[in-house]
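seq:
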Amino acid sequence: MSNGDAMTSLPIMMALAAGLAWLLTARMVGYAKALQLIDHPGHRRSHTQPTPRGGGLAFVVVQVGFMAWLSSQHGHWVGAMIGLALVATIGFADDHQPLSASRRLLVHVAAAVCLLVFAGGVNAPWWWFALMALWLVSMTNAWNFMDGINGIAAINAALAFVAYAGVAVSSGDMAVASMALVAAGAAMGFVPFNFPRSRIFMGDVGSGSLGFLIAALAGMLWDGNVQSGAILLFPVLGMTADAGLTLASRILRGRRWYAAHREHLYQWLVRSGYSHAQVVLGFVAFTMVVAFPHMWIAWSVPSWSGAALFSAMILATGLWIFGKRHCLDRVRSGRA
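struct:
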């Protein structure tokens, strides 16, 4: 298939992925209710009604299915497909019966190693292998941590996938572009069931898989150059900033950083009176108004990529600190 034909088919593939994910999610609602896979409200949760979970399996099936087709055309996708299937499987098992954090982490590491080995990572320097494995495992868990309110994980993942598709098209990598847009379409097919009100949660099967696939696609687009690496961080900056700054804050205060909590900025915003939709749209606005313009600067002038990333990170940190203080002021003034 020529690049021109591929460009024409990309929107069709994205739409088909969205439609198929929508249909499968509808079936998952009934499946979750039948097996009593229900998340009940609690002091560490941001929802107020019992809600089925595990709906992320629907879009993961679409993503893994398309990756299987890519694997038949390009063998280097086999590792990514197996890795994604491993993350989805342990997540789906955890949605049915909670597993230990160490067991989940072990499978996440195995998934990362599998992807890297099949991609030829054994021939790369050890530090590159370790860095990429850390990136894959970190993103898998960061997206899981950030999946705490309606729509935030799926919508922000879709934005990242679309951005990576643009990078892939510009570099002529139509396989990555097609995978990214299929992933975006599949994630958006789930959104009507989860945003602004939720009929089903994606569960660990969905959130971990989204994080792993985002990290995998970014890794495939990275050419080993620091400048291109910086460009690939912008689409996920809003989500990773909240996850990373919250983690750092808990470590500095001597908290058990690995324990469940409600200290992310998005959780504070909901607890201080903002709706799930308002918070999600705030994260989307950050990506559109701050991250993407900085990404365009870094793309246009590669020598400025480091400065652009530093600028965006400073803004993200400032907004995170301001947001926390704003939430405290709302609670103290009785506006929450």
